[in-house]
């Protein structure tokens, strides 16, 4: 019995040491995870409140759609929005359910407004233009309309660049004849990389990149969506926040 006690005692000591080291390691991992969670929470808090400095970009505005719920436009104006671009139509027959009310209420609050059409690669340009013209009234005080260009998971079509540019030119010609002014084009980074629309469509470019100036267009941006994560009083969820290049074209 005596000869077996030492080995058993040694095993027990090693087991206790292993448990102690494991507990220490778990505490360190737990502390690291807590720090990572805290850092992520701080980053999200910062992102939800950040906007470009007003002394560099004096003209700033908001992008609004139905996901922002019932918008209180007085609060939006108080938050510093000089203008608002409001989602209007999508593709051949999509409409934003809050569009008409948002346009009326924004104008009543003294905010300049413009309309956004989200272009679809799966429907003809003439059908999309008809949808836009049905729902967006011509107004001399309206900001230039915007054609939002992005890939959509619900649309698998990827036309050739030549076909896309031809269709887009048709769409622009029809809505610009209706509105009486030239449009802006707002391609996302992936869309621009695929189709290089800013190389061939001579329109003011509205580019998008969170927190850092975008540089993916063929020419410098005139409008920049600087964040899509901003939370402001008067709108549910997050909004897009945009600035106009001070030395560039004005709206």
From TrEMBL:
Transmembrane segments: 25-47
GO MF terms held by the record: hydrolase activity
Pfam families for this protein: Glyco_hydro_25
Family matches, as Gene3D superfamilies: Glycosidases
InterPro entries registered for this protein in UniProt: GH, Glyco_hydro_25
Keyword Transmembrane helix attributed: yes
Keyword Transferase appears in the UniProt entry: no
Record keywords: Hydrolase, Membrane, Transmembrane, Transmembrane helix
Family: Belongs to the glycosyl hydrolase 25 family.
Name the UniProt record assigns to this protein: Glycoside hydrolase
Upper lineage: Bacteria, Pseudomonadati, Pseudomonadota, Alphaproteobacteria, Sphingomonadales
């Amino acid at each position: 019995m005596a000869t077996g006690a030492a080995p058993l005692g040694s095993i027990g000591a090693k087991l206790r040491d292993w448990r102690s080291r494991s507990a220490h390691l778990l505490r360190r991992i737990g502390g690291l995870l807590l720090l990572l969670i805290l850092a992520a929470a701080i980053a999200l808090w910062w992102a939800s409140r950040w906007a470009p400095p007003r002394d560099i970009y004096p003209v700033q505005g908001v992008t609004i759609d139905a996901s922002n719920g019932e918008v209180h436009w007085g609060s939006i104006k108080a938050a510093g929005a000089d203008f608002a671009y409001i989602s209007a139509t999508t593709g051949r027959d999509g409409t934003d359910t809050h569009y008409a009310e948002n346009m009326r209420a924004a104008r009543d609050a003294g905010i300049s407004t413009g309309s956004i059409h989200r272009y679809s690669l799966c429907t003809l340009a003439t059908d999309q233009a008809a949808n836009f013209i049905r729902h967006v009234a011509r107004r001399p005080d309206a900001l230039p309309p915007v054609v939002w260009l992005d890939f959509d998971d619900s649309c698998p079509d990827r036309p050739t660049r030549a076909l896309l540019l031809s269709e887009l030119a048709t769409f622009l010609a029809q809505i610009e004849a209706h509105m009486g002014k030239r449009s802006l084009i707002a391609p996302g980074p992936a869309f621009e990389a695929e189709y290089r629309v800013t190389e061939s469509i001579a329109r003011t470019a509205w580019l998008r990149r969170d927190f850092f100036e975008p540089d993916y267009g063929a020419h410098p941006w005139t409008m920049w969506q600087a964040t899509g994560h901003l939370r402001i009083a008067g709108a549910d969820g997050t909004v897009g926040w945009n600035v106009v290049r001070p030395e560039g074209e004005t709206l």
